[in-house]
Amino acid sequence: MTATLTPAGRADAPASAARDRRAALPRAVLRLHRKALVVGAVLVGLFTLLLLGSLLWRSLYSPAEIAACGTGAGCPGLNAYETAHTVYWSLLNQSQNVLLLVPLVIAAYAAGPLTARERELGTHHLLWTQSAASPVRWLRSTLALASVAVAVGAVFLVMVFRTAVAPMEGVWGFGGWEPGGYAASGPVLVAYCLLGLAVGVCAGTLVGRALPAIFVGVVGTGGLLVAGTFGRPWLWPVSTVVTPFSEGRGAWPSPGTDWPKGAEVRGQWLVTGDGGRIDPASCTAPTGGIEACGVRAGAETWLVEFHPLSHRLPIQLVETGLVLLLAVLAVGTAFLVLRRRTP
């Protein structure tokens, strides 16, 4: 009987080569998109510096010092505080709008440079060959690394915004139910950023050309953002207020009296005796206004449906789950299309 001895190194060679190929794939993806990561990190750092820097500048002046300073125009402490507060207020206000654009920027990059550009230039086959990876593995690795980067960046932006908005929470619409403040104060922004990535990758895979894919990705993500804004009030059961209807405006329901300030009102109606609802907006001035309109229709009560601030977190969690489900569907579509197109 003859025994064949196989060197240990030769037996381990295939496994070692496979590990090297698996490790080379993430490195290749990072090397290809390192400039985008650097630019993204710089922009996040600049956003943080401006927002938290203005908050720090404002906090240098204590309320006691400002109160002691009075309102005299010759008080330098008061003038300096007003300047710091104005800068802080302006940056905080604009940051709500800027953060709503982040999912659109991510969708544009995911649709163009991340997926469609290589196909349009014809370099995708070279990339797959050099990395010794199938197209599906290449997309899976790209999407995994991009998802981690997007999630970490979005979570950091939410933490920065929540820190900056804390002194102004609920004042002039900051935080609360304003679309930008609502999204940036919880997990919804993270979910929409991941949705932008998923929709962009799906658009890039389906279209295969950079500029049309960017257009489709941005429009698709923007449409879902708008749909989320309008559908948000219907994601959680509302609180209601019912008050008697009278012709005197002083007895009509009002915020801060019949429902809490800062609540999001889903709708107000005049309710007749048989349960019919009349939208006050349909009662125009030529017909005598709301008073005459309610009397003619036989209105008996006011009905107000609203979401108090305590509903914001559960609504955010429900919306986050739905948005992430859409992201999974978009990613699944991209992989399905890629598998069918790959020989």
TrEMBL record:
<feature type="transmembrane region" description="Helical">
    <location>
        <begin position="315"/>
        <end position="338"/>
    </location>
</feature>
<protein>
    <submittedName>
        <fullName>ABC transporter</fullName>
    </submittedName>
</protein>
<keyword id="KW-0472">Membrane</keyword>
<feature type="transmembrane region" description="Helical">
    <location>
        <begin position="138"/>
        <end position="161"/>
    </location>
</feature>
<feature type="transmembrane region" description="Helical">
    <location>
        <begin position="98"/>
        <end position="117"/>
    </location>
</feature>
<feature type="transmembrane region" description="Helical">
    <location>
        <begin position="210"/>
        <end position="230"/>
    </location>
</feature>
<feature type="transmembrane region" description="Helical">
    <location>
        <begin position="181"/>
        <end position="203"/>
    </location>
</feature>
<keyword id="KW-1133">Transmembrane helix</keyword>
<feature type="transmembrane region" description="Helical">
    <location>
        <begin position="36"/>
        <end position="57"/>
    </location>
</feature>
<keyword id="KW-0812">Transmembrane</keyword>
